């Protein structure tokens, strides 16, 4: 036995072993080939899944001479393309017979598209040049199942394929983990908001310019800019010869009145006692009345200057007092200054309320109405307040082509300082729209504005046309149906998952 194992294998034995191995390999290949279905000309119906869906393995469809999907059956071929150069996307079909172009007029073709969450869409085709053109726009995304029926020379042909675009699959568990909110497209009330710019102004109805109204020299100034003052508080003292002249005239007139009254009383008594003539009595009465009129005129002249009647010996002293409670917002006076009488020396403003003047462009003039609510936000710091439109200008500026509107804003804590630029949000109106989605659900994809519709475990982008909006909802004019589910809060995570899936724009 030991001797047997030590014998070496002969060449003949090696040849026999090699032959057995080769025969085994050949038999295995034959068995595998018999187990694999043979390709037929209509195989594209089972293979026609173009595009890319997350986690799916897709069979490639042959491309035709025009770069479209090529289907063949019994020598008849149909090439499907989507043409969108300079026109809305449209189906263009090319037909062939035995690999040669075939006049599309010789074929009768219909097509049905099935999209997620949509009723099937039927297309009919008419010959145009060397192709047959579909009778409707192929809306984005180009993600659908396609069934084509064609008849030519008495024979009927059927082709089918599916292409997927802008679609991802996410389970309920994934939604919960990523905190993706799913809402339903429904009617909503939208507050139409107009955004404007403006500036804080002094309330001109509560702001007074102090003018001395006479010539003189400034003796003293009691207040400075920024100080609070009360009505009647002394602001400055001016020495004026003009006021001295008026006071002197007043004092002389007062003396004449006193003398005229005494003379009238004496003449009246003499006339009653029939000692003097009635003419003397009447003349005395006339002189007294004229003196009283002159006295009243002298007093009114002093009052028109804002001066007191004066009781001291310094007739030139003219006191300037605050006309209202407020703040000195401007001071243009100093001791020793010569006054001309017509310049503004103080501005006293009541800052308990201010004006917000906003600029309105011509296109928005008819939108702004008195009484509408506005929110004013400071552009320099974090502060906001609410008011209502109190005035809308009746004119448009020749150069600016804008109008002005005004809001009276309470300012008890003096937060809003005149000159401060502000941003304004005006609530134009509140309307009920038939279909709206959450603002958080809006995303951009390529050059589309989209929401991601929810269909079973799948999300698919739905390009939409939008209308009015506010900070919560945006109106949908086209692209989404009432009652459809969509991704709202954290919808950007769906978009991110779509990017990782690598969905392509395949025609």
Describe this structure in words.
This protein is of the alpha+beta class and 507 residues long. The chain contains seven helices and 32 strands. The chain has helices at residues 2-6, 11-35, 44-47, 172-178, 241-272, 278-305, 492-501; strands at 49-51, 69-73, 76-83, 90-97, 100-102, 107-114, 121-128, 131-134, 144-152, 155-164, 167-169, 182-184, 186-202, 207-210, 216-221, 228-229, 234-239, 317-321, 326-331, 338-339, 346-349, 353-361, 373-378, 384-392, 402-410, 421-438, 443-445, 448-455, 458-463, 465-469, 473-478, 485-487. Strands 1, 2, 3, 4, 5, 6, 7, 8, 9 and 10 form a ten-stranded mixed sheet that branches. The model is unreliable at 1-9 and 30-58 (pLDDT under 50).
Fold blueprint:
Layout: H1 2-6, H2 11-35, H3 44-47, E1 49-51, E2 69-73, E3 76-83, E4 90-97, E5 100-102, E6 107-114, E7 121-128, E8 131-134, E9 144-152, E10 155-164, E11 167-169, H4 172-178, E12 182-184, E13 186-202, E14 207-210, E15 216-221, E16 228-229, E17 234-239, H5 241-272, H6 278-305, E18 317-321, E19 326-331, E20 338-339, E21 346-349, E22 353-361, E23 373-378, E24 384-392, E25 402-410, E26 421-438, E27 443-445, E28 448-455, E29 458-463, E30 465-469, E31 473-478, E32 485-487, H7 492-501
């Amino acid at each position: 036995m030991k001797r047997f194992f030590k014998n070496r294998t002969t060449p003949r034995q090696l040849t026999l072993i090699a032959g057995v191995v080769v025969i085994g390999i050949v038999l295995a290949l034959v068995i595998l080939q018999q187990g694999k279905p043979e390709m037929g000309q209509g195989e594209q119906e089972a293979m026609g899944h173009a595009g890319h869906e997350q986690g799916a393995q897709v069979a490639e469809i042959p491309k035709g001479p025009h770069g479209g999907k090529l289907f063949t059956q019994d020598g008849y071929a149909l090439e499907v393309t989507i043409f969108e150069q300079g026109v809305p996307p449209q189906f263009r079909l090319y037909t062939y017979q035995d690999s040669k172009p075939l006049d599309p007029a010789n074929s009768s073709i219909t097509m049905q598209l099935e999209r997620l969450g949509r009723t099937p869409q039927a297309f009919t085709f008419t010959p145009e040049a060397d192709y047959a053109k579909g009778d409707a726009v192929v809306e984005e995304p180009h993600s659908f199942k396609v069934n084509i029926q064609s008849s030519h020379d008495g024979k009927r042909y059927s082709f089918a394929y599916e292409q997927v675009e802008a679609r991802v699959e996410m389970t309920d568990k994934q939604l919960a983990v990523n905190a993706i909110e799913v809402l339903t497209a429904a009617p909503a009330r939208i507050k139409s908001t107009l955004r404007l710019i403006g500036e804080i102004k002094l309330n001109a109805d509560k702001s007074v310019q102090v003018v001395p109204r006479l010539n003189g020299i400034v003796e003293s100034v009691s207040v400075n800019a920024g100080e609070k003052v009360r009505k009647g508080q002394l602001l400055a003292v001016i020495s004026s010869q003009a006021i001295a002249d008026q006071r002197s005239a007043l004092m002389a007139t007062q003396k004449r009145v006193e003398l005229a009254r005494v003379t009238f009383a004496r003449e009246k008594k003499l006339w009653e006692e029939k000692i003097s003539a009635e003419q003397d009595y009447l003349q005395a009465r006339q002189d007294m009345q004229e003196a009283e009129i002159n006295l009243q005129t002298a007093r009114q002249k002093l009052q028109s200057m804002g001066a007191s009647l004066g009781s001291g010996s310094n007739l030139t002293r003219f006191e300037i007092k605050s006309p209202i409670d407020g703040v000195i917002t401007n001071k243009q006076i100093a001791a020793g200054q010569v006054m001309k009488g017509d310049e503004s020396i103080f501005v006293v403003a009541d800052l308990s309320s201010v004006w917000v003047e906003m600029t309105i462009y011509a296109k928005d003039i008819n939108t702004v109405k008195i009484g509408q609510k506005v929110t004013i936000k400071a552009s320099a710091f974090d502060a906001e307040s609410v008011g209502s439109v109190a005035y809308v200008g009746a004119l448009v500026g020749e150069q600016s082509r804008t109008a002005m509107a005004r809001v009276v804003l309470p300012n008890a804590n003096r937060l809003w300082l005149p000159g401060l630029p502000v941003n304004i949000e005006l609530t134009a109106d509140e309307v009920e729209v038939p279909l709206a989605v959450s603002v958080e659900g809006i995303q951009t994809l390529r050059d589309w504005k989209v929401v991601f519709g929810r269909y079973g475990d799948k999300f698919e982008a739905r390009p939409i046309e939008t209308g009015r909006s506010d900070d919560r909802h945006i109106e949908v004019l086209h692209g989404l149906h009432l009652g459809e589910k969509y991704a709202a809060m954290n919808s950007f995570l769906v978009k991110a998952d779509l990017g990782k899936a690598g969905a392509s724009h395949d025609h």
